[in-house]
Design goal:
Elements lengths: L5 H22 L3 E5 L10 E3 L6 H13 L4 H19 L7 H17 L2 H17 L10 E3 L13 E3 L2 E3 L2 H4 L1 H11 L2 H18 L9 E4 L6 E5 L11 H16 L4 H17 L21 H13 L9 H17 L29 E2 H15 L3
Antiparallel strand pairs: 1-2, 1-8, 3-4, 5-6, 6-7
Helix pairs in contact: 1-2, 1-13, 2-3, 2-4, 2-13, 3-4, 4-5, 4-7, 5-7, 7-8, 9-10, 9-11, 11-12, 11-13, 12-13
């Protein structure tokens, strides 16, 4: 696939951030979760009142819109909107993995863009939430206790206790914020917990062929695994695509922030698996192990992979050049196959064909707020001076 040039990247980012502005107008303070409309059909977001598990993606998009605003008035509007959504996030329970990723983007990303020291403190608070979750026996940050979004996303179902359940995605929801907190403070506890988690993640979740599992239940006292299974892949032997994407992004973060040489070896093994199973168009099926070209795709998994591989630009080394190039190709595929470019469409700037929860038939071909975020964040990386 032809490389992604800066003009195409700028145009795509402009479309996505214009979508953010229109969504802000429509939702009146609520948080977008997913939008199943495609093409020229009417596009309506399913929303939550507090963002549920992905509040940080919406706030993060508002920060990115502020960073790339073309006028002072537009920047002020986006900054005010981001701050305006923080109180709802602060009211959420904190004893779960998504607090880490939410506060990374709401806090540290906001600090990077505004310089507001209070946002830096929010990021550090998110890292403390991850330390509080850490299970020393398992050497994992487990899922914790959180309320999942039901199909109507009204956030009315009760919390689920998963304090002895490890998941493939936690390497990304917790490790980056811990490593950033170490960089900000120099406190070694953040780095040590992050490294422990990465090592155990590689032992428990990465298979010999580079694919990834989903869930590992462990014994409370010994920390030993007692069950390996999946609720989001086709079966326990499957490879849930978005979980695989979070694995790639998490391992890339770990390597960029001083990770082991073994981390890049594992990342390379996983990307060989992706080359073989990610599809000719680089937009994978919702389960990479399916091997069915007609299966529902998951653009959000591709967005995570592009974002993660492009992080490697921050640690330029000849051994990672091919991985960065693959990340650029995946991002280009997303823009050319999934981005709504028709400015007359009600969802212009949406990144389509995300798959939220295929086994329970929730938003299996949709615009997902985290897809939009990771594509925008990947474009932000492409456009950053090196």
């Amino acid at each position: 696939m032809a490389g992604l040039g800066p003009a195409e990247a700028r145009a795509a980012l402009s479309l996505i951030l214009a979508r953010v502005a229109r969504t802000l107008d429509e939702l009146h303070g609520r948080f977008p979760l997913y939008c199943e409309a495609t093409g020229l059909r009417e596009a309506r977001w399913v929303t939550t009142d507090d963002g549920n598990w992905c509040a940080g993606y919406w706030i993060g998009l508002l920060w990115l819109a502020a960073k790339h605003a073309t006028s002072c008035a537009q920047r002020r509007r986006m900054v005010q909107a981001a701050y305006g959504h923080l109180p709802a996030l602060k009211r959420q329970p904190t004893g779960h993995i998504f607090a880490g990723v939410n506060w990374y983007y709401a806090g540290f990303l906001g600090f990077d863009i505004t310089g507001d020291a209070e946002l830096r403190q929010c990021g550090l608070a998110g890292a403390e939430m991850m330390l509080a979750l850490y299970d020393a026996a398992a050497q994992q940050i487990p899922i914790g206790i959180y309320t999942t979004a039901p199909p109507n996303a009204a956030s009315k179902n009760g919390p689920v206790d998963r304090r002895h359940l490890a998941a493939v995605d936690v390497v990304h929801t917790s490790v980056p914020i811990l490593l950033r907190a170490h960089g900000e403070t120099g406190k070694t506890v953040y780095r040590d917990v992050a490294k422990d988690h990465v090592r155990r993640h590689c032992e428990w979740f990465v298979r010999t062929d580079g694919s990834t599992g989903h869930l590992v239940a462990f014994a409370p006292e010994s920390g030993r695994p007692v069950r390996v299974y999946s609720t989001l892949a086709r079966d326990d032997a499957g490879c849930w695509a978005r979980g695989f994407g979070w694995h790639v992004a998490g391992m890339a973060h770990a390597y960029v922030d001083g990770g082991r040489p073994a981390d890049i070896d594992i990342l390379r093994r996983s990307m060989e698996y992706y080359r073989a199973h990610g599809g000719a168009d680089l937009i994978p099926a919702w389960d990479l192990a399916i091997g069915d070209p007609s299966a529902a795709r998951d653009a959000s998994a591709a967005a995570l992979i592009a974002y993660g591989l492009l992080l490697l630009r921050e640690r330029p080394e000849s051994q990672t050049n091919d991985l960065v190039a693959l990340g650029e190709n995946v991002l280009a595929a997303l823009l050319r196959r999934c981005l709504v470019r028709d400015t007359a469409a009600p969802n212009a700037g949406a990144v389509l064909h995300g798959c939220y929860r295929h086994p329970t038939n929730i938003a299996t071909d949709a615009e997902l707020i985290w897809t939009d975020f990771y594509v925008a964040a990947a474009l932000d990386q492409i456009l950053a001076p090196r």
